[in-house]
Amino acid sequence: MSEMIFVEADFFAASFAWGILLLAGYDILRIIRRTVPHGTILVAVEDLLFWIAGSLMVFRMIYEKNDGIIRGTAFVAMGVSMFLYHYTVSRYVVAVGYGIFGRPAKKIYTFFYKGLKKVEKKVKLLIKTGDSKKEEAYDKSP
Questions:
Q1: pLDDT (tens digit per residue) in 94-117
Q2: Among 26, 27, 4, 22, which Cα is nearest to 77's?
């Protein structure tokens, strides 16, 4: 085969791999979201930053592998690999990843979060009782 076919095959394979890598990275983000509760705004900001970073990395790959020439084959390869990854292994990656990393991290997070809540209650109570003692001392002054 000609060298050009090998170059095109390499570009297609790199695009295919980047599709998988992008969704694997997003699965890591999903594991983190299961571990630590996120609000809607934080999820939106995380998604925006993730996809901006992902698009920059894909652009860099296209620039390095194909001299910056954007081809439909790159997007087809990424789309097919994302589709296959999502509908075959993604749920298992998230489940296993959460079981190995997320569940223990969530227990640690919950332990410290509950501890901080207890400390916060005690501090508020001390501040409240301190304020009431100051008021009593102020009321008794001549």
A1: 999 988 888 888 888 777 777 777
A2: 22
Q: How far is CA 20 from the centre of its chain?
A: 16
Tell me how far apart the alpha carbons of residues 55 and 84 are, in angstroms, rounded to a whole number: 20
Task: List pLDDT tens digits, range 6-37.
Answer: 888 899 999 999 999 999 999 999 999 988 88
- Answer whether 66's CB lies under 8 Å from 74's CB: yes
Burial class (CB in 10 A: 0-12, 13-18, 19+), 75: middle
68: Cα within 13 Å, side-chain hemisphere: 0
Cβ atoms within 10 Å, residue 117: 10
Report how far residue 93's alpha carbon sits from residue 91's, in angstroms, rounded to the nearest whole number.
Answer: 5
Contacts 24+ apart (CB under 8 A), 129-133: none
DSSP class of residue 99 equals I
Rounded Cα distance between 68 and 86, Å, is 27
By residue count, the chain amounts to 142
